[in-house]
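Example for tutorial group B:
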């Protein structure tokens, strides 16, 4: 199932019963991202908060909004290597905990719970900042009949189908091969 990309002005669809909690968390993550990170981080944090709100039952109904906000920002930061000194912006994940007034073990635990719930890994495409998405050799590897194939060598019709399904970043030109 493909997820709709949000731009900075769009909000994810959230059940009415969860909306107040989601709104509180979104304000916390937006404020943090505005003060310390970027709008790209804010958009992804809202998307992740929306995904948590849509889970049944929503885990957002248990726990403090500040703890969830911390875990959400920490998760998006972890996926995007926020703690790598070569990244801009750069921030230690423990600094996120301090900014939210959450114990380091609590922030780390909430982020781990979120990552486990959605099976999130480093550089997970859905949760990677758009500015960080650069096609790599792995971007072109797709499964066909049980085999992993480089989509750049496939016929155009197969590439178009792979693009439609969100399996490849774009239709490669001959120089991409």
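The residue assignment follows.
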């Amino acid at each position: 199932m493909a997820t709709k990309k949000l731009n900075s002005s769009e909000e994810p669809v959230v059940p009415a019963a969860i909306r107040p909690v989601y709104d509180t968390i979104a304000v916390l993550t937006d404020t943090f991202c505005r003060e310390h990170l970027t709008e790209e981080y804010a958009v992804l944090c809202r998307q992740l908060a929306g995904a948590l709100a849509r889970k049944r039952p929503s885990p957002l109904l248990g726990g403090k909004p500040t703890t969830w906000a911390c875990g959400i920002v920490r998760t998006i930061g972890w996926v995007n290597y926020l703690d790598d000194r070569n990244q801009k912006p750069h921030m230690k994940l423990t600094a996120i905990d301090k900014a939210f007034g959450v114990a380091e073990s609590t922030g780390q635990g909430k982020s781990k719970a979120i990552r486990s719930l959605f099976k999130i890994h480093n550089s997970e495409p859905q949760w990677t900042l758009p500015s960080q998405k650069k096609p790599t050799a792995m971007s072109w590897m797709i499964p066909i009949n049980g085999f992993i194939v480089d989509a750049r060598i496939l016929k155009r019709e197969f590439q178009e189908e792979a693009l439609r399904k969100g399996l490849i970043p774009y239709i490669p030109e001959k120089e991409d091969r």
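Residues 25 and 65 are 5 Å apart (CA to CA). Compare this with the pattern of hydrophobic and polar residues in the output above.
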